[in-house]
Specification:
By secondary structure, the protein is of the alpha/beta class. Among the domains are: 138 residues, Thiolase/Chalcone synthase (Peroxisomal Thiolase, Chain A, domain 1, 3-Layer(aba) Sandwich); 118 residues, Peroxisomal Thiolase, Chain A, domain 1. The protein has 13 helices and nine strands. It has a nine-stranded mixed sheet, sandwiched between helices. Helix 2 links the parallel strand 2 and strand 3. Helix 1 crosses helix 2, helix 3 crosses helix 13 and helix 6 runs parallel beside helix 11. The radius of gyration is 20 Å and the shape is globular.
Amino acid sequence: MAEAYIIDAIRTPTGRKKGSLAEWHPADLGAIPIRSVVERTGIDPAAVDDVVWGCVDAIGPQAGNIGRSCWLTAGYPEEVPGVTIDRQCGSSQQAIHFAAQGVMSGTQDLVLAGGVQNMNAIPISAAMYAGQTYGYPTPFSHSPGWAARYGEEEINQIYAAEKIAEKWDIIREDMEIFAAESNRRAAAAIDSGRFASQIIPVGEFAMDETVRRNTTPEGLAGLNPVREGGIITAGVSSQIADASAAVLIASEQAVRDHGLKPRARIHHLSVRGDNPIMMLTAPIPATRFALDKAGLTLNDIDLVEINEAFASVALAWIKDLKADPARVNVNGGAIALGHPLGATGAKLMTTLLYELERSGGRYGLQTMCEGGGLANVTIIERL
């Protein structure tokens, strides 16, 4: 099978709730890393076969195929197509998969993948809430087939995060220690300049503003749970955030034709499903499936990026797979750095690539939980 190479990756800084990116139109925000990748690599934009872009809650300014809109807003040729992917939180990781698969199939040579999300402009679950106007309280309402299979049990990510903590015997203190460490690692990464080369500034806004410095487990212990009687708090959850990121995927032919230098190779890509009520557990079986298919063990993986949707999700993954926490989210995760939904997959891939290069590691694994009980897994090999 043909190889798919990562040529470049770049991301914007992550804006916090009511922060520096809140007023940016998603098309303009998404155009920033697109333009940067094209300029940095020197490719002819007309040679791009497709723009595959992640976005969740594609309504309002994120509607109308935002991937296509970002490309056009960047000022590039109209003949280059674009498509928007919604695999919930894994949307731009799936965009990278589709881009790589197009290259591996031999039908495409140069594909730009990535994602954008302005959660300040369009709140999380806005697309679901929009259905209420048309008589659908939830996406599953009035479906006899769904009710027959899953009954009327609540479908809610907070509920799922609580159930995961219960199933894997994760107590609140465990999550608060994890969350404090996420913030500590992120602050250390910023202070040491680890993120500087992977970020394209948005005007004068040049660095992630989501990190809660001086967070302690003791301080987090004073927060009220999101659900009555629960243990999940805002402090152990991913943050509302705005960002965009782009990754250029190329074939061997494109590498030769455009004089490109590959930075990593897509070693493996897959996506698996699990129970949609538990919703956030799929990274565990998906990682096992991916490692088996790739002929690797977790000991072969130098770095892991698992999206910290909630501390319980990452801790359950670490516990179940017996992973080394020192290799997981070494520069912090979404608890500290935000989770801009449709952009997170490409954002994490950018961070994983740069950290592999900085540390000299060979293999990096990325995974995340996704609505519907799904999880993508990507394994890359640094070149």
